[in-house]
Amino acid sequence: MFKWILLGITVLFVSGMLALLARLSAGPSNPVESTASATPSALTPTYCPVATPEPFYVEPVTSPTYIRFQTIAVYLGNSEAITVTAESGEFSIPCDSNNCPVRISLLPNVVHHLTVYGKVRTFKNGCTYGGYTLSTTRDRYGNPLIIVQQESDIFLPVIIFQR
User: Fold this and answer.
1) pLDDT tens-digit profile of 17-62?
2) How many structural domains comprise the chain?
3) Domain carrying residue 88
4) Which of 35, 72, 76, 89 has the fewest CB atoms in 10 Å of its CB?
5) Could you tell me which of 76, 65, 78 has the C-alpha nearest to residue 110?
6) CA–CA separation, 52 vs 84, rounded Å?
7) Model confidence pLDDT, tens digit, residues 72-113
8) What is the model's pTM?
9) According to the model, what pLDDT value does residue 21 have?
10) Model pLDDT, residue 157
11) How many whole angstroms separate alpha carbon 32 and alpha carbon 35?
12) HSE value, Cβ hemisphere, 13 Å, CA-based, for 66
């Protein structure tokens, strides 16, 4: 009889030690479920899928030009705002569509080096996506966004008629 009692105590001791070791080694990669107060939603973590990058590109610019302004055609998926910086200043527009034309002014006889920034709209649906800014100094074909503005040397004759 003493053997059976000793065996029972040994089994209880070993199972208690195993349970204690399991709890001590529990972590994010090895969770331990408690059956006393566990609910399915508390045991199931929410995993957010990896977001796909938003497409962002700029159409080629016209250079050289004699005009004192130019519209920069920017495409950004889920756009919130577009900003273009150049030697002539900073030009920003809010944009809630994917196609965002930004009109910039050009200084006379200046080479303008453009940098285009696009802010991606933030989405929250249990997971947070977006909220970041992309930038580029190249068009969609890899050419630099440089506009050379030249004053026109062309003079049109003015004809005055007398009566």
Assistant:
1) 555 445 545 444 444 444 444 455 555 667 888 888 899 999 999 9
2) 2
3) 56-148
4) 35
5) 65
6) 24
7) 999 999 999 999 999 999 999 999 889 999 999 999 999 999
8) 0.65
9) 46
10) 63
11) 10
12) 5
**Residues 124 and 81 placed together within one structural domain of the fold:** yes
- Structure tokens of 79? 């756009």
3-state secondary structure the chain: CHHHHHHHHHHHHHHHHHHHHHHHCCECCECCCCCCCCCHHHHCCCCCCCCCCCCEEECCCCCCECCCEEEEEEEECCEEEEEEEECCEEEEEECCCCEEEEEEECCCCCEEECEEEEEECCEECCCEECCCEEEECECCCCCECEEEECCCCCCCCCCCCCC
Same-domain check for residues 65 and 116: yes
84 lies in the same domain as 130: yes
Do the Cβ atoms of 123 and 129 come closer than 8 Å? yes
**64 preceded by a cis bond (ω within 30 of 0):** yes
For the chain, the maximum distance between any two Cα atoms, rounded to a whole number of angstroms, is: 140
30 is written with which tokens? Answer: 């090895």
Residues 76 and 144 in one domain: yes
Asked if the structure places residue 163 within a domain, the reply is no
